[in-house]
Amino acid sequence: MFDVFGSVKGLLKIDQVCIDNNLFRMHYKATVIILIAFSLLVTSRQYIGDPIDCIVDEIPLQVMDTYCWIYSTFTVPERLTGITGHEVVQPGVGSHVEGQDEVKYHKYYQWVCFVLFFQAILFYIPRYLWKSWEGGRIKMLVLDLNSPIVNDESKNERKKILVDYFKDNLHRHNFYAFRFFICEVLNFINVIGQIYFVDYFLDGEFSTYGSDVLKFTEMEPDERIDPMARVFPKVTKCTFHKYGPSGSVQKFDGLCVLPLNIVNEKIYVFLWFWFIILSVFSGLSLLYRIAVVAGPKIRVLLLRTRSKLSEQSDIENVASKCKIGDWFVLYQLSKNIDPLIYKEIISDLAAKFDGKDVV
Questions:
Q1: What is the pLDDT of residues 3-53, one digit of tens each?
Q2: How confident is the model at residue 218 (pLDDT cuts 50, 70, 90)?
Q3: Shortest CA distance to 167 belongs to which of 338, 291, 351?
């Protein structure tokens, strides 16, 4: 198992300097790790075995397996209910009249690993953009002030550099902040788009998949249709045509077992709940961001929360001079600088804004 997921260990590395927030990390770190891990899992024959095994007379099994894997298999939706072994062979597998009974083809399974990996790339794009735009600014401003063990001479020198930078570049950080806000919007658009994308990939089954699975357990056994068996059947049918000895076309119906769908059905149940939760929190985060941009008092309150050791008058003084970009930089610095040192920085900034000399 460690061999399968060893390649995602690098994504678990904790950044020394925080340049985003917890929800942002849920998108580019947690979700990317989950999707890549699932992509690796569905390609691991060590735990799943062959992705498809077909049974048919007179056709070599390997040929049948390859053909049905490439050209898809099918189930009969009207045969999803019934007593297994009597009325139907398996849910969705039973006798049907060609041209009359509805047939559902399943073509997605050979693409699952690629789609999961592609989704992981999409979730990482906002992070890539923000990291490129951010350019290491917060890391340079922190100047090792995130360590409480700093000698006074070095600490005072670094504080002075930071305070002078902030005073000289006041009101020049709006573009920096709004780039981050754009990435937050991209995160929200991406997760909503992913829900529609997976729904299209699974022929319109994903949008209600998780809720259908929950409802399934509450229905009567004779009436309920397992949504996991409908979307990810474990046994399907496959039709193979070839020329006979006289040149006539011969038709062969075979049964195909899809062990991979045992994993696929669990993966997409988890992803349904994960995407829904992520989209809800992302939407709430955007409302929070709008309130922060529009409400100066909210920014003062948040800065006070991040700098509990600072004097309230100093925080209000600094916040009153800051625009949204300046506030955002100060807020990000509060996550990375030792609280005692951050208190001194706020005090020095307040004094600097009042025209006083800072020692």
A1: 544 555 556 677 788 889 999 999 999 999 999 989 888 887 655 667 888
A2: low
A3: 351
Which neighbouring-strand residues pair with 256? 54, 236
Q: What is the DSSP letter of 11?
A: G
In a domain, residue 337? The reply is no
d(CA 130, CA 190): 15
> Which residue, chain included where needed, has tokens 């992509």?
39
Spatial contact of 194 and 275, defined as CB atoms under 8 Å apart: yes
Contact 259, 50 (CB under 8 A): yes
Indicate whether 308 pLDDT > 90.
no
Q: Is 357 helix (H, G, I), strand (E, B) or coil?
A: coil
Would residue 142 count as lying in a domain? no
Q: How distant is the alpha carbon of residue 295 from its chain centre?
A: 30
- The residue type found at 333 is L
SS3 per residue for 218-241: CCCCCCCCCHHHHHCCCEEEEEEE
Predicted pLDDT at 46: 54
Q: What CA–CA distance (Å, rounded) separates 307 from 315?
A: 8
Residue at 39 is within a domain: yes
Q: What angle do CA 329, 333, 335 make, to 5 degrees?
A: 125
Identity of the residue numbered 271: L
Distance between CA 145 and CA 164 in Å, rounded? Answer: 15
Distance CA 272, CA 205 (A): 11
Q: What is the pLDDT of residue 4?
A: 47
Which range marks the domain in which residue 125 is found?
2-135+175-265
pLDDT at 1: 44
Instruction: Give helix 312-321 / helix 296-306 axis angle, nearest 10°.
Output: 140
Question: What is d(CA 175, CA 195) in angstroms, rounded to the nearest whole number?
Answer: 31
pLDDT at residue 2, rounded to an integer: 45
**Domain total for the chain?**
1
The mean pLDDT value for 136-147 works out to 83
Residue 32: inside a domain = yes
Task: Give the pLDDT confidence score for residue 237 in this predicted structure.
Answer: 84
Q: What's residue 146's pLDDT?
A: 75
Longest Cα separation, the chain: 103
- In the chain, count H helices and then E strands: 16, 5
pLDDT of residue 317: 85
- Chain-centroid distance of CA 176 in Å reads 25
